[in-house]
Design goal:
Elements: H1 6-24, H2 57-66, H3 75-81, H4 87-91, H5 102-112, H6 129-142, H7 157-169, H8 182-195, H9 210-219, H10 224-227, H11 235-243, H12 248-263, H13 269-278
Helix pairs in contact: 7-8, 9-12, 11-12
Length: about 290
């Protein structure tokens, strides 16, 4: 090793002394900060400290409780959590509802079922599995027909969708504005579904006649309110029937006629018997379908 000069050894000593002092003072930052009226600071060991004092946890909690905020320990998560005072209410906000309306989602599919449009089966939306899966998800949230039990088993999804679209088409008057007449369009859609024997025909086991509707309304007059939720009638139609001043028998008859209009070819004797059996009312209509 070379000769060590006396000045070099003094520099090494000074640097070591400076290093020890910096460690003893709590490793303060080397960056200079301009502080107004900072006053005299005393180093550690003489009753002072260069480190900034932290606020007490209790003070922070009291401050956040007063502001009705929740601190998650992360600035990003804390800001996200406190965007709305009630998170459940925020999830129900209209701007968080991303489900399309029934009219917007099913409009094209219903129009494709119209025989006048001459759409080939391969291009119909009801035969698209991905579209059908989304349709079921939407119907479970928006349509009352999805939960109506039927007595006509359907083996394939396209058959079920065609049957449901035929019912929903009658409840979507806005779709008829693009056609010559609204009634004509809905009738053609229903006929197309009923006549499509190879793909989605609903087998009739005896349509309920007008005379049988009258007999049913007479026997079920006292139970029409119990029957109403099981027939898949729209809420506004039910409200209209309930507000009518007619007798219970007439209200029941109006309810059954609305059911026949909604079900179309599916308004069969077996279907109404199946519904009444679930309500334990089948014995009340003995002899009607004899």
């Amino acid at each position: 090793m070379g000769d060590v000069k006396l000045g070099d050894s003094d520099n090494i000593g000074d640097r070591e002394e400076h290093w020890n002092k910096w460690k003893n003072e709590g490793c303060p930052s080397f960056a200079k900060k301009l502080e107004e009226n900072a006053g005299e600071k005393r180093p550690i060991g003489e009753g002072g400290s260069y480190r900034r004092k932290k606020r007490k946890l209790g003070d922070l909690i009291q401050k956040e409780m007063a502001e009705k905020k929740v601190n998650l320990g992360n600035s990003g998560l804390t800001a996200l959590w406190n965007l709305h005072p009630d998170n459940l209410e925020a999830c129900r906000a209209k701007d968080r509802d991303f489900l399309p309306s029934l009219e917007n989602y099913f409009e094209e599919a219903i129009e494709q079922l119209d025989p006048r449009n001459e759409i080939e089966d391969a291009y119909k939306k009801v035969n698209n599995g991905e579209w059908g899966w989304r349709a079921l998800r939407l119907m479970s949230r928006r349509s009352s027909h999805f939960f109506i039990s039927g007595n006509n088993p359907i083996a394939k999804l396209p058959e079920y969708l065609e049957s449901m679209l035929g019912k929903m088409a009658k409840e979507m008057p806005g779709l008829g504005a693009k056609e010559e007449t609204e009634v004509g369009m809905n009738a053609d859609v229903g006929d197309a579904i009923a006549e499509n024997g190879e793909e989605g025909e609903v087998k009739e086991t005896g349509r309920v006649t007008d005379a049988q509707l009258v007999d049913l309304s007479t026997k079920l007059a006292d139970s029409w309110k119990k029957l109403a939720p099981k027939l898949g009638i729209a809420d506004d139609k039910l409200a209209e029937i309930s507000e009518n001043d007619d007798s219970d028998g007439n209200k029941c008859l109006a309810l059954l006629k609305a059911w026949v209009e909604v079900e179309g070819p599916g308004a069969t004797q077996d279907e109404i018997v199946y519904i009444l059996e679930g309500l334990k009312l089948a014995s009340a209509i003995e002899g009607v379908f004899a």
